Amino acid sequence: MDRLTEMEAFATVVDQGGFTDAARKMGISKSAVSKHVSALEARLGARLLNRTTRRVSPTEIGLAYYDRARRVLNDAGEADSLVTSMQSAPSGLLRISVATDFGVNLLSPVLGDFLREYPDITVNMVLNNRYVELISEGFDMAVRIGDLEDSTLRARKLTDTTKRMVAAPAYFQQYGRPQKIDDLNDHKLLHYSNQASGNMWKLTAPSGEKRQVRTAGWLTVNDGQSLLNAAISGLGIAFLPSFLYFEAMRAGLIQEAIPDLPVEHLGIYAVYPPGRFTQPKVRAFIDFLVERFADKGPEKW
User: Do 134 and 175 reside in the same domain of the chain?
Assistant: First the structure.
């Protein structure tokens, strides 16, 4: 006989407290349930149930076996459900954590297309500028920019962006234009307060040397759009990703602070919980973003 069927019959008898109710639960005859349990006891060489005319209860060995058997049966049920869901159309609530700047500038404009393509999915996009714990905080996935921290999460690259130091032409007219990294110490810098590195910029010199600039900012905020607005108004130099500065630079509202420096490149990733299988709704959204951003990249926002 099938081991799982024997195990299921025994566990159902324990759950239901008898063979009659177990047979009704499983949709088979009482004699069939009894045969499955007897076959299991014979194979194991142990009595798993105490049988009386009034009640059925597990023996000490039976109770220990029941705990393990129930786990195996639950895992088998989840495996079946997973295969079914993997083949079903994407549906359900998709909860996403996204950095505010990226969400406002890039995700919000394309969400309508995604929802029209997948009408059975509903999206809850949470915009914040902190590192969220996906599993414990109930998120299905997140979009993260830059180097990924060591993690058990899975990741898929969506596209790239660049970072440049930018300021308004009026700022350079008033304070001059820095010619090298060391000159930044004499300038007014605009900082992003949610950076893990604090008020420190990681830059690359023309020689390829990695440098760090740490100075007190004239203005520090936790929102990239506010930094861009401050730079446009001539308050100082901001270090921003291309999806924020691109349109303003094309319009001549800002210029690069030190054009000779190598451009800093950052990856943009979808991260999601580990496991061999990905929920259809998560896979659908990531595939959608990869396709949508296929023609995007550094200097193409």
Answer: no
